[in-house]
Amino acid sequence: MTVRRLLVLGTLLAGFALSGAAPAAADITVGVAVPRTGPYVAVGEQVLRGVQAAARDANAKGGLDGQTIVLDVQDDSCDSNQAVAVANHYVQADVRLVVGHVCSNASLAASEVYAAHGIVMITAASVAAKLTDRSFPTIFRVCGRDDDQGKLSAAILAERFRDRKIAILNDLSPASRQLAAATKDNLNRIGVNEALFTAFQASDADDAALADRLKAAGIDVVYYGGDAQEMGRLVRISAERGFRPQWFGTSAIATPDFAKIAGGASNGVLMTFYLDPSRKPEAQGVVAAFKGQGVEADGSMIYGYAALQVLVAAANFARSTDPAVIAKTLHAERFDTVLGTVGFDAKGDITAQGYVLYVWRDGIFTPAKGN
């Protein structure tokens, strides 16, 4: 069962006033649904920190349509059933604006509840194409789509590794399966066929067996859309067993946890991830504020900031807290954000630039040459 936590923002990481009581009349509650337990905790923390910073900054400028933003943070553990429970909690608590969820399976499940009750949901990290392909009028994302990520991954594989033996893996999780399928389909359309397309059960024993199988098959390049913990473990175990292919990951490993788990074997690993907004001029003030708190604005942190930022911008533009009005405004207008000037298409997808290629080196990822 999740525990309701109302966080009244005073500073970026501390100084929150906690209350179990209902917000005052001059407050507006925004739900924040992120994993605070399970394998995606690091990504959830990035998104949450970004939202907290955006709420702090918005409140300093008058809040959302003149009301002070209060955050109701809930843990969905990236579990579909728990995500639905969180969504129902927001319905019962009359929370009409939600930043979340992080994992695509959680967002897909919860969005059905939000759409049915007219709640605006905007995710900073869920990439499943189906989330917005259903064209629910109140469902949005500030990140990219997995089909776009699959297209870029396939193009890179074809351009850089056409004559190498390529393996495409998935670990049976929904996100991993979707990314593997999208990459395979796009790669095959280009005219390149992978040497191996297979699923495996993530575990130390299976990772070791898989590494030996790939090595025996003479695989040169391994594409895998697993999370930071599993890919980090697979890369490390493979290296320990003398198998060092060119690894190619996805946005799911855009957290320092990957390099910590993979160790030195993380060097040279390729990864597709959203355009790094921390390098954009529009984000420099936010990045500097994070650094002032001793925090690097990496991974999904800026996207968490942007998710709340556009909600506030739409509400202030429309001078309304009505979720239906905010949703229509998000679809119709463009907003100056840390991601640049952006809008949303009819499906709820953001117009910002999508994915680019990164490479891991010495525990951090930076844009790869030739982007």
From TrEMBL:
InterPro entries xrefs: Leu-bd (IPR028081), Leu_Ile_Val-bd (IPR000709), Peripla_BP_I (IPR028082)
Protein name: Amino acid/amide ABC transporter substrate-binding protein, HAAT family
Leucine-binding protein domain boundaries: 28-362
A Pfam family per the record: Peripla_BP_6
Entry keyword set: Amino-acid transport, Signal, Transport
Protein family: Belongs to the leucine-binding protein family.
Keyword Signal attached: yes
Signal peptide: 1-24
Species of provenance: Methylorubrum salsuginis
GO terms (BP aspect): amino acid transport
KW Ubl conjugation (keyword) present: no
